[in-house]
Amino acid sequence: MQFMSRPCIIVVDQGTSATKGFLFNESLEQLHTQKIRHTVKRPRRGWVECDAGEIAYACRKVMERIAAEAASRSLTIAAVGMAFQRSTFLFWGKDDGEPKAPAMSWQDSRATELVKGMAHESADIQQLTGIPLTGHFGGPKFLHTVKSNDVINNGVKKGTLFFGPLSAFVAHRLTGSSNIDQSIAGRSLLMNLSTLAWDDHLLDLFEVMENCLPHIVPTCHNYGTITIDGNEIPLLCVMGDQQASLIGQGRWEKGDVALNFGTSGSVLVNSGETPLVVPSLLSNVLFSSDDSIHFLLEGTINSVGSLFKWLEGYFGITHDEMNWDNRCSTETDGIIVSGLNGISAPYWTGEFETQFFGLDRKSDPDELVRAGMESIGFLVNDICEVIQKEAKIELADIVASGGSSRTSLLQFIADILRTDIATTSGKDMTALGVARLVAHSVFGTPLGSVTERDEQFHPVMTAKVRDKKIFAWHDALRKLSILTN
Fold first, then answer.
1. Who contacts 25 (Cβ-Cβ below 8 Å, separation ≥6)?
2. What is the distance between the alpha carbons of residues 269 and 253, in angstroms, rounded to a whole number?
3. How far apart are CA 103 and CA 142, in angstroms?
4. Which terminus has fewer CB within 10 Å in the chain: N or C?
5. DSSP of 120-166, one letter per residue?
6. Cα(132)–Cα(348) distance, integer angstroms
7. DSSP-H helix ranges across 176-327
8. Which residues make Cβ contacts (< 8 Å) with residue 384, sequence separation at least 6?
9. pLDDT by 10s per residue, the chain, length 485
């Protein structure tokens, strides 16, 4: 491909609370970044919504700002790639591209009661999709909405609406083409992980008509063109943000492990060219093209950065005073089990009231924050136990990235896992992951090696203290009937 001036790539990282844009050159150096924040609403317990139109506008606006920066540097935009929050679903018009109701966030668990009545189908659903049956995913959100919203139900029956993730909606708005990438389509509970196609049995189960679903395509695919300042730019990659972070960290080999922490968190394992289905975990496409496909095994943690934001409000700590990484130097024997957004892997609950054991409002705020941080590490440990026992994957050489990958958290995880944890030398691994795939498509750039390491965390906690803490955590889960053995 020939360019009149030096080529560059725009990457959009669309997350829970903000949309970020990045400018990369051919060498994958980050030249510029832009950020637009947006709102998340909680109209009632278990309901978490966002304005998809606001997010689509933010995606276009950051691209326009990045394009203006590129023009000021005499750079030519060769292509665009995008990463998205994954399990946020909505209905929108096929003709006008307008959302017909607020988008249901990945944090939303309004369909929890509905899926309880489908428990007898859970094993088959996980085997077909690689994903546990919970109200957080697309199929249950679809069924809940059409049963409770007559306007949406009529639109579905008339064939005038699309249903899909935020990624498909934004791509449709930007390009006019209706596609959904394989890495996010799996979050619908409607795609067969073996065939990578919509599954008739799953469609029947959730009462979904296939004509309201976008067409499934690889993550690396020509999704159409985006017009930016009169120039038509191809959109060549759309994928899940956690998948992109694993690629950004350079975890290319089967069995490679990474942690990524932002608003939420994930334990990510490259499972190679064959999907690996493990009860209580998630199996998805990692990235794909017309020629190849790679899979991901994952354990998600619903509340990481969002937990500390909640603690700010609950205990009256201002955002400027939170500094949670510093506060976590305090020790605690207390336990917090966060019910914010529910617990995902490996327990899969709906949202519930956050519970405190050995702590209350009168406790030292720093101790409360420390207990919140430790709850994240305990979930990482529980997920890793399942990966090792059920998937027979030995966890070693673990790297971490993301805005919530703070020193205190990573040190605690190293202590609890009894293994070293390293951070990557650069930030924005999600954006880098997308840039790597787009550069490979456009310039033939090699996909890259392992990303350079930065800080190292080594276990220092004694076995006695570690075992006592894990016992207290599991005892709290038993008292809440989350853990039953």
1. 6, 7, 8, 9, 31, 75
2. 9
3. 11
4. C
5. GGHHHHHHHHSS---TTSHHHHHHHHHHH-HHHHHHHHHT-EEEEEH
6. 8
7. 182-185, 200-205, 241-248, 305-315, 319-322, 324-327
8. 267, 299, 395, 417
9. 455 579 999 999 999 989 999 999 999 999 999 999 999 999 999 999 999 999 999 999 999 999 999 999 999 999 999 999 999 999 999 999 999 999 999 999 999 999 999 999 999 999 999 999 999 999 999 999 999 999 999 999 999 999 999 999 999 999 999 999 999 999 999 999 999 999 999 999 999 999 999 999 999 999 999 999 999 999 999 999 999 999 999 999 999 999 999 989 999 999 999 999 999 999 999 999 999 999 999 999 999 999 999 999 988 888 888 888 889 988 999 999 999 889 999 999 988 999 999 998 888 989 999 999 999 999 999 999 999 999 888 888 899 998 889 999 999 999 999 999 999 877 789 999 999 999 999 998 888 776 778 889 999 999 999 999 999 999 999 999 999 87
Radius of gyration of the chain (CA): 22
Task: Please list, in sequence order, all residues whose beta carbon lies within 8 angstroms of the beta carbon of residue 120, skipping any fewer than 6 positions away.
Answer: none
- 3-class secondary-structure state, position 104: strand
Interacting residues of 198 by C-beta distance below 8 A, sequence separation 6+ = 190, 191, 192, 210, 213, 216
Q: Can you tell me the distance from the alpha carbon of 8 to that of 439, in angstroms, rounded to the nearest whole number?
A: 9
The total of other beta-carbon atoms located within 10 Å of residue 124's CB is 13
Residues 41 and 138: their CA atoms lie apart, in Å, by: 19
CB 38 within 8 A of CB 17: yes
Q: Which amino acid is at 374?
A: E
The dihedral through the CA atoms of 288, 432, 307, 313 has a sign that is negative
CA distances in angstroms from 295 to 130, 252, 428, 439, listed in the order given: 11, 11, 22, 21
Tell me, rounded to whole angstroms, the distance of Cα 418 from its chain centroid. 26
* Cα pseudo-dihedral 82, 170, 19, 401, rounded to 10: -40
Please answer whether residues 110 and 46 qualify as being in contact, where contact means their C-beta atoms are separated by less than 8 angstroms: yes
- Look up residue 254 and give its two tokens: 């089967």
The whole-angstrom separation of Cα 280 and Cα 299 is 8
Place of tokens 């150096």: 29
**469 is written with which tokens?**
């803490």
